[in-house]
Amino acid sequence: MTGDQPTELPLAGMRVLEVSSFVAAPLGGMTLAQLGAEVIRVDPLGGAPDHSRWPLAPSGTSLYWAGLNKGKKSITVDLRSAEGQRLVTRLVAESGPDGGIVLTNAVGRRWLEYGELVRHRPDLVHVQVEGHHDGTPAVDYTVNAAVGFPMVTGPEGHADPVNHVLPAWDIACGLYASLGILSADRRRRITGQGQRMSVALYDVALAMAGNLGFLAEAQVNRVVRKRLGNYLYGGFARDFATRDGGRVMVCALTRRHWADLLDATGLAEVVGALERSLGADFSTEDDRFEYREVLAGLLNRWFARHDLAEVRAALAGTSLLWSVYNTFSDLVADDLIASNPMIQVIDQPGVGSHLAPGIPLAFGVGARAPVARAPVLGEHTEEVLAATLGFSDAELAELVERGVVGPAPAERTAV
Amino acid sequence: MTGDQPTELPLAGMRVLEVSSFVAAPLGGMTLAQLGAEVIRVDPLGGAPDHSRWPLAPSGTSLYWAGLNKGKKSITVDLRSAEGQRLVTRLVAESGPDGGIVLTNAVGRRWLEYGELVRHRPDLVHVQVEGHHDGTPAVDYTVNAAVGFPMVTGPEGHADPVNHVLPAWDIACGLYASLGILSADRRRRITGQGQRMSVALYDVALAMAGNLGFLAEAQVNRVVRKRLGNYLYGGFARDFATRDGGRVMVCALTRRHWADLLDATGLAEVVGALERSLGADFSTEDDRFEYREVLAGLLNRWFARHDLAEVRAALAGTSLLWSVYNTFSDLVADDLIASNPMIQVIDQPGVGSHLAPGIPLAFGVGARAPVARAPVLGEHTEEVLAATLGFSDAELAELVERGVVGPAPAERTAV
């Protein structure tokens, strides 16, 4: 995979060893691979628990695993054996000046911790993804419940917590992990010193609750935020249903947006009269939020009288921020997706040809790296061990024979 | 702020100029500041639109702005004047070898684009945050509607889209922006060449829908994913209400989790009989997901017969992943938050002393950088112009007098 990438990608030369599972750490490693690093994901023989995670293609191949491991190399090693552990340790130690970088969410594997590996690689950069900062486990679903967002998400008046479906904390945690590696790499490049870092999923969620003002609002204002359904807090934005069953999200965040929305819907006069009689100023976000239900009620009537095509026509060309709600099926049927320069057709073993995204970071105008597929589990075991540690074919065959490393995928299929 | 940070932070020395608003770009800049960079946020006189964004403290100070701009320097400049634009351009050009880095989500400001600034700083690193890859605007709420998650989020059977409250796309986009800067900085350090990058909010969302398998599921399997409420897709996890009105999220992701859950709830025998009569194997995630409603129905009865304290006692010490649902108010009242090493008390002008998070990345054992407060708008205008461009007090006073740059905050209050 990596060999296909143009050498001008920003992380060209960097070598990262990843021992991971599920979303956060694999996404962190994939991000580095998409930026040009050689990322070697090490899995136990047969794969980590995420290797069979839903959704699955009809072949049984995990679409989830394929999506989160694009562009990596994959090797399989018996991680419970001392010999397998020594092999992985050597891959860290002997990976050249731009190597010696480990990303992992494994816990309870002492040989894989910073304190052990640094004995073999003094300038080691080691980023540990964990559940809580004390090392106890957590997953996106438990962290999300713990930090408050399910209590303010969902339809107004709904009594129970509403979990997100997007594993947002895993995503942010994985990106922080890759930021940790890049920042530690910078420091190592300047000072020669490696370092350990860690990032806890729970801390990511708690930090964001703080960064966005939710914690301060509860502390300083002693306000218990309520569910607002699809309204935006502190401004005017909401979803509206069209006559023909379409649905659009409409955001009037600025004075100009609001004026354009009133123009497009022909409500300027009615809203103006309302504004004067209430003594309100709907050119301010505060008053648009205060009277959101009244304003939405008026707008609702306009949307309910128009088909989606009419709504599109009326809102096109205005300054308004708006979007139709799509399903995932709508998205893949949409020419706009296929024509997005980030999206390319890849051929993934077990899945076949399908549209897949590269990294959303674009490097310069029009220059996109090819989207690399995910490896097949164990695809690069022999290649990596030969290239990095100099094993001969005979030595590799013997390691496979003894079960210290996994066989190449084709061999396994044949067995 | 930055002067207070220990020089061993990994990005010490890096200088970033940020012209931004709202969440994504400010979070990207704050992340770099939290990693040790000097980040100068440049705002128009009086502040950008996010400066008054809700939630507000009783003083009117935005808790949102304060939360997303911690650890930065703030300068205010008349960005519409040619002279103000020249000043900002000089701050980019003359910021030393580790400077020349721009992060912005401003659009339609030609003088601030890569193509203009690079004429003054040949090794410029420039990261543009945008709505869509073609430069058209979008916000988290419209992007979220567009990419499918609101159609699968929310209570089972709920007909309408459910927006998230967490601006997850803004968060991921901001972290990608900071990754762009760090990766381009690495390449510049090696090759001497700067580069432009861009990251579109919509592309971030679309990429994640792809990375997580949602797009492939729709393309390859032609499956339209349904709402599952608070169930986890493809495994067994759900929320349960306790007798006394508590609520817990419980995840049995592995065989051991499941066995522990049955032990803790005394359901092993009943579930075993059910398993045999159905011909199911609840030690597999597939079957736990397939029969999730039956299993949850049985578990529901156990949780409904126990108070939260009893549930805590029963689940403590098991391998299960579980959490109580908290409100934001619960969180700030919780000793665990105050004792989290990432959280510190900061004194924010207009807000007062409150608990605020640092970056969730921990550097080594126990070494946390002090959590820096946000600047007051324009707090560092004179300091930055004097230090970087060598302006004298008289020259600075004259610039303030003519309105090219904003006055120091105390002076403005006095006016």
Question: Mind explaining what this structure looks like?
Answer:
2 copies of one chain form a homodimer. The first copy, chain A, has 415 residues and is of the alpha/beta class. The first copy, chain A, has 18 helices and 12 strands. Chain A has helices spanning 24-34, 63-68, 82-93, 114-117, 140-147, 168-191, 201-211, 214-220, 255-265, 268-278, 285-290, 292-304, 308-315, 328-333, 335-338, 381-389, 393-401, 409-414, and strands at 15-19, 38-44, 73-77, 101-104, 125-130, 195-200, 236-241, 247-252, 321-324, 343-348, 352-357, 361-363. In chain A, the strands form 3 sheets. Chain A has a 6-stranded parallel β-sheet with strand order 3-2-1-4-5-6, with helices on both faces. In chain A, a hairpin with a 5-residue loop joins strand 7 and strand 8 (247-252). Chain A is elongated. Residues 1-7 of chain A have low confidence and may be disordered. The interface between A and B is large, with 147 and 146 residues.
Residue share in β-strands of chain A:
15-25%
Strand order of the largest sheet of chain A: 3-2-1-4-5-6
Average of per-residue pLDDT values of chain A: 94
Please, what is the oligomeric state?
homodimer
Portion of residues within helices of chain A? 40-55%
Spatial separation of the terminal alpha carbons of chain A:
26 Å
Largest interface by Cβ-Cβ < 8 Å: A-B, 147 and 146 residues
Label the overall shape of chain A.
elongated
List segments of chain A where confidence is low: pLDDT < 50 over at least 5 consecutive residues: 1-7
Number of helices of chain A: 18
What is the count of β-strands of chain A?
12
Largest sheet of chain A: 6 strands, parallel
SSE class of chain A = alpha/beta
Could you tell me the radius of gyration of chain A in angstroms? 26 Å
